[in-house]
Amino acid sequence: MQYGHLLIFGSLVVTGWFLFILFWPRMLLFVFKSAILVRGFGEGPVPVNTLYTQPEKMFAEPITSQSLRDSELMTRGVNHDTLLSVGWLDLARGPQCLCVPDMTGRYYSVQFVDPSKNENFAYVGTRTTGTDAGEYVISGGRWKGSIPQGMTHIPSPSPSVLVIVRTLVENESDLSRAYALARQIQIRPLNLRQSE
């Protein structure tokens, strides 16, 4: 009978670790989502179904420990050659349209992440679609509408999507051009695009 308590304790420990491993990625994405939607890049919230590009000044300033808050360190310390844009899509409100300008041969990448599984499910960018201008319809799994001519369909396995955009900055003198192009990569509702 004395081993019964050990078996119960062992079962609880194994179950606890299993639940921790299962839910840890989701918890991290929830924290990341909250950081994007509530704090953005330190300048306030980023609305759902929009892309927000880190400020040009934030990218250009050298990183020093005295000038950075913890929230800025996450967004500045990762890439020194690509501008970062982020957004969170809610496809339950309807499909969204990703509009990409002609990137004139510049490297860029738009990464689509399913937060429920922490998996990348699609990419738009230099290596996958080229650098020409393009429009892409991102829709949730239950949407049954038609795709307008000339647009590419990207079905999402989840109604919630994390979007991460990276735009190459070749050198200091290229920053303004790269920033202008990064700001032209936009998300808007599909019906807004159709009415233009």
From TrEMBL:
Signal peptide boundaries: none
The DUF1254 domain, residue ranges: 77-189
Protein name: DUF1254 domain-containing protein
UniProt keywords, alphabetically: Membrane, Transmembrane, Transmembrane helix
Spans traversing the lipid bilayer: 6-24
Keyword Zinc tagged: no
Keyword Transmembrane helix: yes
Species of origin: Terriglobus roseus
A Pfam family it matches: DUF1254
InterPro entries: DUF1254, DUF1254_sf
